[in-house]
Amino acid sequence: MTKSVYQWRPRTKFDIDAQVAGEELDRIKGHNSGDLTPDMVIKAAEDTKSPLHGVFEWDDSKAAHQHRLTVAGQLIRSIVVTITPASDAAPKPINVTITPAASGGGTAAARVVSEAELHAQRVERGWADLDKWIRTYGALPEFAQVAGVVQVLSAQRPSKAA
Predict the structure, then answer these.
(1) How far apart are CA 112 and CA 89, in angstroms?
(2) Which of 11, 64, 86, 117 is 20 to 30 A from 161 (CA-CA)?
(3) 67 lies in a domain?
(4) Between 68 and 1, whose confidence is greater?
(5) Is the separation of the CB atoms in 67 and 56 below 8 Å?
(6) Based on the structure, what is the number of domains in the chain?
C-alpha cells in the first residue's frame, strides 16, 4: 500500500501542516468524483470541524479587505514606469522598481535600477528558473542530457557577491 506524502512548495505560508491539508484535499476530491475546485474546498472548509476551516477568513468584511490588499499588491508589482525627457531627444527608459512597504500598511517605495543591476537580476532569475526546471524535469530520461549540461554550467557559474 502506498502513502502520499504532502509538502508545501517553497515560500508557501499556511498555518496548517501540509500533510493534514493534502489529506483533506484528497478527501474532498474523493467525495466529488475526483474533481477538486476552489469552490469545493471552501464549501468543505465551512464546517468548523474541517482541518481547513482555520485557513480561511470567515468574517466577510475582513476577507474583502484581505482580497483588496492582494489586488493592490498585484497592482504595485505589475506596473512598469518609463520616464522620458521633455526634449526631442530619443527617450531612454529608466528602470524603476516599486516595492510595497514591509508592514503592508505603509507607502510603497520606488527606486531607479541601473541597466547592470537589472541585467544581474535577470541572470539570477534565469539561474533560479533553470534550477527549478532541473528539480521538475531533470530526472526524466528524455531530459537527462540537457539536465547534465545545465548542472555542469550551474556548478561553474560565479557565486553572488556577499
Answers:
(1) 20
(2) 11
(3) no
(4) 68
(5) no
(6) 1
Q: Is residue 136 part of a domain?
A: yes
Q: Which of 74, 161, 80 is nearest to 123 (CA)?
A: 161
> Which one, of 70, 77, 24, lies nearest residue 49 by Cα?
24
**pTM flag (> 0.70):** no
Residue 52 exposed, middle or buried by CB count within 10 Å (0-12, 13-18, 19+):
buried
Domain that holds residue 118: 114-162
Other CB atoms within 10 A of residue 95 CB: 16
pLDDT confidence bin for 61, thresholds 50/70/90? very high
What's the length of the chain? 162
Burial (CB < 10 A; 0-12, 13-18, 19+), residue 98, is middle
Helices 144-156/115-137 angle, 10° precision: 140
d(CA 148, CA 13): 32
